[in-house]
C-alpha cells in the first residue's frame, strides 16, 4: 500500500510516520508537509533513510501542486493530519486556519475523489463537540454529540469534518474521521500546555496558567492515538466517525503540579494569567465505539505516560531547545511577555 500522510513533520503526524514506517516495511509512507513553524524534520531522523519512507514539501491547499502529486504518486490511502493546530493562534489570527484546515481538506478530498483513493482518513478533534460543564462529570462526548464549536480553530476543524461527510454521502468517497482528545508525548511543539510547562519549569521561568486552572482536558498518549488511527484505516467502516480517548481527565492545575513535582521545582513558579477567550471548560471522550467495534484499548495511563514524557524532554533537550528560537520567540514574546 502507498499511504500519503499529510502533516507528518508535526507532533502527532511525526509519531505516526515513525510508527508506520517501522511497523509496515512493505507499505510506502509518503510524508507531505509544508514545514510551517510547527513542522520539524528533526522528528523524522530515525526513519529518513528507510526505503519505505519519502518526504515531500508542499501545501495541502495548493490545488495544482496536490493534483500533480496525486497524478504522480497515486496513493491508496490518504491520512490528513496537516492543520493549523493551536487554539491561541486561531484567536489571534483565524484566516490561515480557514485556508489550511478547510480549503486544505477540501483540496485533498477533491484529489482523493478524482484519483479514486481507497480510504481518506481525517484526523479531527473532540473540540468540534464544544465543551462539557465542570459540574457534570457523568457527561461524555459520543459520536452522536452535536457539533458546537467555540474557537476559530475548532470551527475550522468542524467545517472540515462536514466536508468529509459530504464527500462520503454525495460522491461515495470512502472516508473515516477520528476525533481524539488532547494528545501528549514525545515531539510535541512547546507552545502546547505540557511541553510549554516542562521547558519553562526547567528554565525556572513562570508557568502561565489560564484563569483558575480548573479547566479539564482528557489526555491521550500519542502512541495510543497512532494505533487507533492504524486500526481505523484498516478496519473502520466507511462513512463513520470514531472517538479516541483514554479516560484520563485532569485539571490543568493538576497537570502543571505533576510536572513541577517530577522536576523538583517549586509551585511558586505557577502564575495565573488572563483566561483564554471562549475557554472550553471540560473535554471528556467516550471511546466505547472504538473499543467495542474495533477492539482498541489504550496502553498508557496518564501517570506513567506523563513520567515517560517528562523523561523524554529531559533526554532530548536539543530537539526542543532548537525550536525555542526564531519565529517561536516572536510568538512567545507577543503572547506572554507583551500582553
Ligand atoms: P502540529 O501543529 O504539531 O503539526 C501540524 C503539521 O502540519 C506541521 O508539521 C505543519 O508543518 C503541517 N502543516 C500545516 N499547514 C500545512 C499545509 N498547508 N500543508 C501541509 N502541511 C501543513 O499538529 P498536531 O498537534 O500534530 O496535530 C495533528 C492533527 O491532529 C491536526 O489535524 C489537529 O487538528 C489534530 N488534533 C491534535 C490534537 C493535539 O492534542 N495535538 C488533538 C486532537 C486533534
Ligand atoms: O500557557 C498555557 N496555559 C494554559 O493554562 C497554555 C498553552 C494552555 N493552557 C490551558 C488551555 C487549555 O485548557 O491548558 C489547556 C491545554 O491547552 P493547549 O495545550 O493549548 O490545548 P487545547 O487548547 O486543549 O487544544 C489541544 O487539544 C485539542 C490541541 O492544541 C488541539 O490541536 C486539539 O484539537
UniProtKB/TrEMBL annotation:
As its record notes, the protein acts as a catalyst of: dTDP-alpha-D-glucose = dTDP-4-dehydro-6-deoxy-alpha-D-glucose + H2O
Q: Which cofactor does it need?
A: NAD(+)
Q: Which family does it belong to?
A: Belongs to the NAD(P)-dependent epimerase/dehydratase family. dTDP-glucose dehydratase subfamily.
Name of the protein in question: dTDP-glucose 4,6-dehydratase
Give UniProt keywords alphabetically.
Answer: Lyase, NAD
Domain named NAD(P)-binding is located at 4-309
Which top EC class is given? lyase
Q: What is its EC number?
A: 4.2.1.46
> Which species expresses this protein natively?
Ileibacterium valens
SUPFAM superfamilies in the record, alphabetically? NAD(P)-binding Rossmann-fold domains
Amino acid at each position: 500500500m502507498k499511504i500519503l500522510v499529510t502533516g507528518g513533520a508535526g507532533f502527532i503526524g511525526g509519531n505516526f510516520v515513525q510508527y508506520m514506517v517501522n511497523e509496515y516495511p512493505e507499505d510506502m509512507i509518503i510524508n507531505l508537509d509544508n514545514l510551517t513553524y510547527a513542522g520539524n524534520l528533526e522528528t523524522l531522523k530515525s526513519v529518513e533513510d528507510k526505503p519505505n519512507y519519502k518526504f515531500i514539501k508542499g501545501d495541502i491547499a495548493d490545488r495544482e501542486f496536490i493534483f500533480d502529486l496525486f497524478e504522480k504518486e497515486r496513493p491508496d490511502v490518504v491520512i490528513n493530519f496537516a492543520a493549523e493546530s493551536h487554539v491561541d493562534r486561531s484567536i489571534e489570527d483565524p484566516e490561515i486556519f480557514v485556508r489550511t484546515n478547510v480549503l486544505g481538506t477540501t483540496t485533498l478530498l477533491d484529489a482523493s475523489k478524482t484519483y479514486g483513493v481507497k480510504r481518506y482518513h481525517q484526523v479531527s478533534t473532540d473540540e468540534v463537540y464544544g465543551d462539557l460543564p465542570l459540574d457534570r462529570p457523568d457527561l461524555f462526548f459520543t459520536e452522536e454529540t452535536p457539533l458546537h464549536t467555540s474557537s476559530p480553530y475548532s470551527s475550522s476543524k468542524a467545517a472540515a469534518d462536514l466536508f468529509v461527510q459530504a464527500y462520503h454521502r454525495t460522491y461515495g468517497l470512502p472516508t473515516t474521521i477520528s476525533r481524539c482528545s488532547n494528545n501528549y508525548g514525545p515531539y510535541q511543539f512547546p507552545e502546547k500546555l505540557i511541553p510549554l510547562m516542562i521547558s519553562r519549569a526547567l528554565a525556572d521561568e513562570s508557568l502561565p496558567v489560564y484563569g483558575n486552572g480548573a479547566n479539564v482536558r482528557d489526555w491521550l498518549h500519542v502512541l495510543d492515538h497512532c494505533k487507533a488511527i492504524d486500526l481505523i484505516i484498516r478496519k473502520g467502516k466507511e462513512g463513520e466517525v470514531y472517538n479516541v480517548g483514554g479516560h484520563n481527565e485532569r485539571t490543568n492545575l493538576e497537570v502543571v503540579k505533576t510536572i513541577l513535582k517530577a522536576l523538583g521545582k517549586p509551585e511558586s513558579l505557577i502564575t495565573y494569567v488572563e483566561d483564554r477567550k471562549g475557554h472550553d471548560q471540560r473535554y471528556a471522550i467516550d471511546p466505547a465505539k472504538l473499543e467495542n467495534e474495533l477492539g482498541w484499548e489504550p496502553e498508557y495511563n496518564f501517570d506513567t505516560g506523563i513520567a515517560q514524557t517528562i523523561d523524554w524532554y529531559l533526554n532530548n533537550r536539543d530537539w526542543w531547545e532548537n525550536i525555542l528560537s526564531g519565529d517561536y520567540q516572536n510568538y512567545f514574546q507577543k503572547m506572554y511577555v507583551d500582553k
